[in-house]
Amino acid sequence: MNTNRRNFLRTMGAGAAAVTIAVPGKQLWAANVNEEINIGFISCGGRSRGLMGQFSKVEGVNIGAVCDPDEDRMKQVLETYPKAKTFTDMRELFADPEIDAVVIATCNHWHCLAAIWAMEAGKHVYVEKPLSHTQWEGEQTVAAARRYGKVCQIGTQQRSDPMQAEIKKFLHEDKALGEIKAARVNRYGVRGSVGKRDTPLEIPKNVNYDLWLGPAQEEPIYRKNLHYDWHWDWNTGSGEMGNWGVHVLDDVRNNIFQDSVTVPKRIFGGGGRVLWNDAADSPNVHFVYFDTGSIPVVIGLSNLPDKKGGKRSPKMGGPSSGYVAYCEGGRFEGRRAGGIARDRDGKVIREFKGNSGDVLHQKNFIDAVRANDSSTLNAEIQVGHDSTGWCNFANIAFMCGEKFDRADADLVKQSTWKTLLKQTDEHLAAHGLSLDDDAIKLSPMLNLNAEGQFVGDNADVANKLLKREYRAGYEVPEIAMAEAK
User: CA-CA distance, 444 to 398, in Å (whole number)?
Assistant: First the structure.
């Protein structure tokens, strides 16, 4: 191991905030646009394998290395990419001068630290959504991209679907439906319980658990599975709001606000984890109101079926995974790879068809790497941070909640909020529950300033949730934006 690499690994292992000696890769892409780009993949799970397939379709890209603390998952990937180098510790991959860029598709709690370490080492970064596990660490990742001058894209692939430009032109330039008055966001997708063990889960011997945990706290796990179900544990995941909510909220920020609203002015919401009595702690029913200062937005999420024993998602108005823009002259219903515009009578006046942005989004990243130009990215890291922020704030509202109170909920007079609550109550009733159940919580109205800090009443409690406590050796470094280059 050369001196630079040894210093890098030592510094990263200490979780230091200081600038490390970067190991340069092949940087001058503009000089030779046909040169192959070697990508390293951090994680060999299902999402990462999907991304490997998509990046492989981009000309001039090579899957040069894979990394996972789970040896079995890494072996499975090698069956498809036998020439890829293998690493258990991502820091060793980052120190490899043959790797030019990395794709981070780990558990949510690793996204920011892995991205920062990679950029410190001179790598460009494609990081899966949601960008951050907490809002503060997202800020540090944006600062790192500026400081180290790296291309950093978030994996909200719908941003690269050409359909999105057509939608924005239809809504904003043509104003085909008139002014937008309100927006509703939906994510109604059936999931099952993660189970609840009597004794802590025994970590498989093929998993380096210290590396798997990274920044997260070491706590006993009582769910059935280590992988994937980490989504529903606050220690490692962000619930359905950060899993799917970030996609549909990003669509709203993009197509309805054209990214003009980065931080909502006020947030109000609640929900609960009901029916299952399992080991997870994120809500499986979640409802939130965002006061943007202009167009009000609400989001409703549920993992429960439409009825007891059912297999379908409830019908709640609009796409089950998508959004509705309520306009003067009708409404627009958007979803992944499609959209429908209706007049006031509900008649379809135009349909939009897209392609989800898969492969195009990965090519957009590779093109930006070749040009060393972040301005060409469709989902640059600041955009990803802003959209993820809405999810982080929504989860904080849930965590700040106390028992649901209808009188408090009715303080918001906005019609889409009232409709959402009514439909949620009916949805719960299909399972013998209601909003009045003890398991359902409602937050106080929380106020935010333009910098994403809570202000006013209840700010002290909410602000404590903007940052987490990191495990020793895996601290996310503080990177002042003023130091960014």
Answer: 10
